[in-house]
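Bumping my old thread because nobody answered last time. Still need a sequence for this structure:
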């Protein structure tokens, strides 16, 4: 009898701990710090990028004040948004617009690529037009440059490839291949869909890190990859020579829960290692 009661108490304790962990991972975000090095940037020079992805209309504090305050404290050189800030079922876009306005006030250089949920939402054009009106740099199938001191950096991007809205040729048209190139793609599967991507760093989201993970197992399922996916979160080296970074994002989709996979946005630091001639 005592053994049974002890086992029951243990199961209740583990259940409560699991619920507490899920609530925390879903509703308290962290900043994931990741460092990269490049010989295409001068030694001693650093570029800090704040990546925000897959918010899915979730709120962290009133009007997302916690997200905004953290972004302000980090003070990055530029902000990139890699899609799915809204959900496919989102009807009211104002809180989304309020967020990008505040991010724009923190850093004038804010770059955005679309995700599958933007394309699957009935208000796609209203959403994109609202971003343009707020001077967010839309990177769907295009490229731009960012000037960091005396270094020019390519920023390229595609519309969501998981819904076949990408145009890779157009995205890379006319870029300087000698410059460090950052490529924004909502779906990380772009690196398996295309063999040779002429980018140094690919920044993606979409997977939510599997959303639900388990110790020693990792992600159970991820969109477009099925069970026990290979590309879920973190840094990967691609055969073409690019480095892929997948941010597991802030929000949830389908089931409103994260487990062993805390909500996050990422601060990416690229350090130069090129010696002066």
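Sorry it took so long. Here it is:
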């Amino acid at each position: 009898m005592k053994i049974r009661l002890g086992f029951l108490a243990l199961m209740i304790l583990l259940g409560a701990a699991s619920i507490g962990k899920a609530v925390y991972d879903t509703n308290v975000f962290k900043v994931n710090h990741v460092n990269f090095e490049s010989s295409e940037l001068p030694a001693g020079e650093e570029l800090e990028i704040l990546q925000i992805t897959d918010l899915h209309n979730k709120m962290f504090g009133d009007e997302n004040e916690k997200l905004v305050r953290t972004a302000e404290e980090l003070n990055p050189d530029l902000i990139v948004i890699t899609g799915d800030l809204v959900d496919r079922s989102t009807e009211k876009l104002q809180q989304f617009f309020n967020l990008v306005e505040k991010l724009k006030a923190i850093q004038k250089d804010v770059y955005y690529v679309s995700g599958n949920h933007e394309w699957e939402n009935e208000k796609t054009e209203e959403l994109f037009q609202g971003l343009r009106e707020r001077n967010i740099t839309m990177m769907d199938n295009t490229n731009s440059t960012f000037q960091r001191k005396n270094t020019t950096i390519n920023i390229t991007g595609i519309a969501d490839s998981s819904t076949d809205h990408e145009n890779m040729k157009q995205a890379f048209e006319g870029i300087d291949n000698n410059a460090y190139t950052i490529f924004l793609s909502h779906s990380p599967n772009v690196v398996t869909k295309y063999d040779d991507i002429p980018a140094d760093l690919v920044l993606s989201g979409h997977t939510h890190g599997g959303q639900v993970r388990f110790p020693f197992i990792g992600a159970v399922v991820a969109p477009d990859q099925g069970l026990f996916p290979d590309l879920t979160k973190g840094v990967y080296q691609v055969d073409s020579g690019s480095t892929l970074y997948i941010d597991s994002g802030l929000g949830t989709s389908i089931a409103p829960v994260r487990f062993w996979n805390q909500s996050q946005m990422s601060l990416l630091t690229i350090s130069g290692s090129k010696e002066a001639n």
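The longest strand covers residues 30-42. Let me know if any region looks off to you.
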